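LAB NOTEBOOK - FOLDING QUEUE
OPERATOR: T.R.
BATCH SIZE: 2
PURPOSE: Compare the predicted structure-token outputs for two unrelated chains run back to back under identical settings.
PRIORITY: normal
REVIEWER: second-year student, initials M.K.

ITEM 1
FIELD SEQUENCE / FIELD STRUCTURE:
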Amino acid sequence: MTDAGRDDRATEVLPVDTIAPGREVPPRRRRRGRGWIALLVILAVIAALLVVADIVTRGIAERQVAQQLEANLPAGVEGEIDVSIGGFSVIAQYLSGSMDEVRLRAPELVVAGAPVDAAVELRDVPPALDGPVGRIDASVRADAAAVDALMTLAGVEGGVTLGDGAVAYERSVEVFGVPLRVVVTATPVAAGDTVVLESVAAELAAGDTSIDVSRLVDRVLGEGPVEICVAEYLPDGARVEAIAITEGGVRVDLDAEGLSLDERSLATTGSCG
């Protein structure tokens, strides 16, 4: 064939790795693909095992913390505690020496014979509960009967009656040698280690007769607001931050920083200055 008869088109060069139809994948490529698949399967199995191990560890840790806390409850306080450990990995938290968040629930806790519902959130908690906790925020709820029992225990005569944001309690006074009963309506105010009952109204009763003596409440009672020391019922360092009153019960919010949860610390109560 002459040069004139030759095809002037450029010759197409096929890539070396191009595999013609019907040809098998080279053994090296098959081994490489299978290796990646095996590696992915191994990683998936390891990840699944770590998740299972963390779930098991979390359950064990929660039970151990609950048992330890129940054993460390101070005298006069008893009940079962449900523990929930937050955070991504319990194992990682244990290795770091601090649990990010631990939530406690004790819906049937008994304090000095009165049932209360307690919820506690702990942050920066040592795994063995052998050191101070970074911060503790607690909320305690009690119904009217429990509040009445606790107030009587605190020395408030006649118990209390709960209203919308206020409480009513009875006081006995003598006016010109005549014993009278005064029903005082007061607003409770949280003051850290004490709860202050600020009188807002008073009613003087003698037999079936009652007289509104709100304007003379200080003179009739002969004293200022009633201060109830709550520190002596709380672990040393715990403070009352807020009180919410309804007709059905009371909610008290408390907090503490650097408080340890061992038996000695929980049994050591505070005092009022």
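ITEM 2
FIELD SEQUENCE / FIELD STRUCTURE:
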Amino acid sequence: MGIFSRKIKEEKKKDQSAVPVVLKAKKEEKRKDTKQSLPPVVQPSKPVKTVKAYRVLLKPIISEKATIGVSLNKYVFEVSPRANKVEVKKAIEELYGVVPQAVNIINKEGERVRFGRYLGSTKNRKKAIVTLKKGETIKLYEGI
């Protein structure tokens, strides 16, 4: 059987080579035409995540320690518990127009408190310490 199948394959090859070159060219042209007629595929761009500053920065923390930090170009803010350093940096840029040099984040667990016989706790807080370059300030802290 192997010998006969070889002969059949060889005969098919000879028949295909006998097909005029003009027909092959026409087939290739048709293929090119169909490819060109299709509209180009547009890749959807990735959605850009925008930072909403009022959701990231909750309030500035004004305390004795925070006001001492102002002299070192360090400002303290209470931020959303889900915020990260990158979001805080973008929010500062958006609200105050100042580019922070560094952002440090502190997670403060709520303290256990007691009201008579009832036990409870204060809420967890997240603070961000924003360091600015020399000469840059945030207007909010100026008069304190």
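REVIEWER COMMENT (ITEM 2): DSSP finds five helices and six strands in the chain.
FOLLOW-UP: none requested
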